């Protein structure tokens, strides 16, 4: 059951990542603020849906919580690196730089989804271990 749930939540994060990256493909540059606002709303919605799928399971230790927050920092760093990569390639290959926002949004959404998925999966594993210990003691 847990493997199926992890696959479903991973696919949910992938669907959101593709959806958010489509915003970056809209060729109207004057809509950047609106695109980013919609992306933030969709990312928050994705995080909420992932929490609902995992039933907002608790029980993570302090290292898991700290790792989760550092993964957020890493997600923003990797999104910036994806943006820079497409900008750099665009200097030599025409039209590639037009994909830089889509690449950054995809990377950000995917990494935030995966870190949230992993955070809840750790809590689920600890919950299952506690249940097994309680059943073995009874």
Quick structural gist:
Helices cover 81% and strands 0% of the residues. With 138 residues, the chain is mainly alpha-helical.
Folded structure, characterized:
The protein is mainly α. It has one domain (2-131). The chain has four helices and no strands. α1 (2-24) runs antiparallel to α4 (100-137), α2 (32-53) runs parallel beside α4 (100-137) and α3 (62-90) runs antiparallel to α4 (100-137). It is elongated and about 65 Å long. The model has no long low-confidence stretch (mean pLDDT 92).
The figure for the number of domains is 1
As a percent range, the share of strand residues is under 5%
Could you give the distance between the termini? 24 Å
SSE arrangement, N to C:
HHHH
Shape, principal axes of CA atoms: elongated
Q: List the total number of helices.
A: 4
- Unreliable segments of 5+ consecutive residues: none
Topology (elements, then pairings):
Layout: H1 2-24, H2 32-53, H3 62-90, H4 100-137
Helix pairs in contact: 1-2, 1-4, 2-4, 3-4
